[in-house]
């Protein structure tokens, strides 16, 4: 089933996510405050917009409340990550996934209403560790 995603933050994580969601047939609104990153993804995403997502009015203008799933892919700027997550929650988006840099960041995001937290480096290392430990692994 086709889903509607809004992805905020188009760094390595956010932009890779946009590629995968689009490849899987979903509609994706990609947003970043950095114009170059928006231009880079514009041929891939369903829509790509340059905007500051810590501004409530901007999120409303983007029609953020119409999306069933939002992904906050901002890691370094804690304030922006927290504020964007809070505003999306206030818009009653059914599902919010947020990227966190560390456990403390993730706990704050959960407290303010994120439904799911991803820790890209930690999660990928765990996955690789499990793959490397697997008995079935002949060559990596
Ligand atoms: P990655 O590790 O995924 O490459 P990164 O190191 O590029 O991420 P992050 O701090 O995680 O950097 O930020 C991801 C993106 O979020 C950046 O491209 C940044 O421009 C964007 N971003 C930060 N604040 C905002 C904001 N208020 N509104 C929209 N986009 C933002």
Automatic annotation (TrEMBL):
The lineage of its organism: Bacteria, Bacillati, Bacillota, Bacilli, Bacillales. The chain holds residues 1 to 140 of 220 of the full protein. This is Trk system potassium uptake protein TrkA. GO terms for molecular function: monoatomic cation transmembrane transporter activity. GO terms for biological process: potassium ion transport. Residues 2-118 form the RCK N-terminal domain.
């Amino acid at each position: 089933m086709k889903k509607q995603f809004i992805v905020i933050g188009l760094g390595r994580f956010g932009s890779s996510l946009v590629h995968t969601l689009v490849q899987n047939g979903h509609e994706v609104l990609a947003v970043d405050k950095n114009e170059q990153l928006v231009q880079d993804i514009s041929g891939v995403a369903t829509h790509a917009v340059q905007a500051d997502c810590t501004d409530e009015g901007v999120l409303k203008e983007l029609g953020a409340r119409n999306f069933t799933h939002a992904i906050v892919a901002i890691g370094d700027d804690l304030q922006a990550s927290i504020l964007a997550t809070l505003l999306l929650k206030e818009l009653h988006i059914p599902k919010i996934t947020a990227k966190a840099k560390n456990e403390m960041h993730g706990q704050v995001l959960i407290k303010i209403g994120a439904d799911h937290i991803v820790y890209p480096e930690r999660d990928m290392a765990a996955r690789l560790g499990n793959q490397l430990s697997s008995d079935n692994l002949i060559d990596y």
